[in-house]
Write a structure and sequence with these properties.
The chain is mostly beta strands. It has one domain: Beta Barrel (Porin), CATH 2.40.160.40. It contains one helix and twelve strands; from the N terminus they run H-E-E-E-E-E-E-E-E-E-E-E-E. A twelve-stranded antiparallel barrel has the order 1-2-3-4-5-6-7-8-9-10-11-12. The longest helix has 27 residues. It is globular, with a radius of gyration of 25 Å. The two termini are 47 Å apart. The relative contact order is 0.11. Keywords: Signal. This is DUF481 domain-containing protein. Pfam families: DUF481.
Length: 258
């Protein structure tokens, strides 16, 4: 075998491997599903009483040229089982649902430049234990990044919208104009630890709704992370027997799609 053939054979054998590796890396870099992921939390207690609590979230983000489409689904359900013993010794098992809330939102953003976009967002919510057990809103807005460093970023969206709500207090459905604001803050403490805070405000003539989500996320590897979260929800107009602020503390496992 000539020297030229001896040199050519290894190159031919290595070429498919190098091409496959480059194609794989290119596909990973150009994936339109960046920023997508889900999280899940569950707690259970057994004994004289039984309680179960579940919360889950799914976030999807798809980039198509100058357009960015997103979807956010959230669910919370908590229940308890209590055994009651009467005077004659008979026992009764009673099931109580203590939380039942589901939220879904979707939006599209047209990129005008680096960190500048026009946005359209729709949000709907069902909460069986709130004064406003059903809320739906649609908003248009302008978004921009107000602060941007290597470790810290702060984004804001502001614009008008319309909201439709149902009140359990008087069984009344109302529709009105709102002002909508969404503020996202992220700070990287270390290479694998992030502080994240999101504030949503929808203010209209008959109610101001606000929800703040704060979380500490610690990545274990490329896909998995642990997240401690604290959520506060506020409604300015509530029934007499209802509190204006509800809070939720969670500890979830997060899976990041690539």
């Amino acid at each position: 075998m000539s020297l030229r053939v001896s040199l050519l054979v290894p190159l031919l054998l290595c070429a498919p491997l190098a091409y496959a590796q480059d194609a794989s890396e290119l596909a990973a870099m150009s994936s339109p599903w960046s920023g997508s992921g889900g999280e899940l939390g569950f707690a259970s207690a057994r004994g004289n009483s039984s309680t179960e609590s579940f919360n889950g979230r799914l976030r999807l983000r798809y980039t198509d040229g100058d357009w960015v489409h997103s979807m956010d689904l959230f669910g919370l359900r908590s229940s308890s089982k209590v055994i009651e013993t009467s005077d004659d010794g008979t026992t009764t098992r009673r099931n109580n649902t203590t939380a039942n809330r589901y939220t879904g939102s979707a939006g599209s953003a047209l990129q005008l430049g680096e960190h500048r976009q026009l946005t359209a967002t729709v949000r709907t919510e069902r909460d069986d234990f709130a004064t406003y057990d059903r809320q739906s809103s649609f908003g248009l807005g302008y978004g921009t990044r107000l602060w941007n460093t290597e470790r810290f970023s702060f984004d804001a969206q502001i614009g008008p919208g319309v909201r439709r709500t149902h009140s359990t207090e008087d069984d009344r459905t109302r529709t009105g104009l709102i002002g909508r604001g969404l503020f996202d803050l992220k700070y990287s403490l270390t290479d694998n630890t992030d502080l994240i805070n999101t504030l949503l405000v929808e203010s209209g003539s008959y109610n101001t709704f606000g929800q703040n989500d704060f979380g500490v996320s610690v990545s274990m590897n490329e896909h998995l992370a642990l997240k401690a979260g604290w959520q506060a929800r506020y409604n300015s107009d509530v029934a007499v027997d209802k509190r204006k602020t509800d809070t939720l503390t969670t500890m979830n496992v997060v899976y990041k799609f690539k």
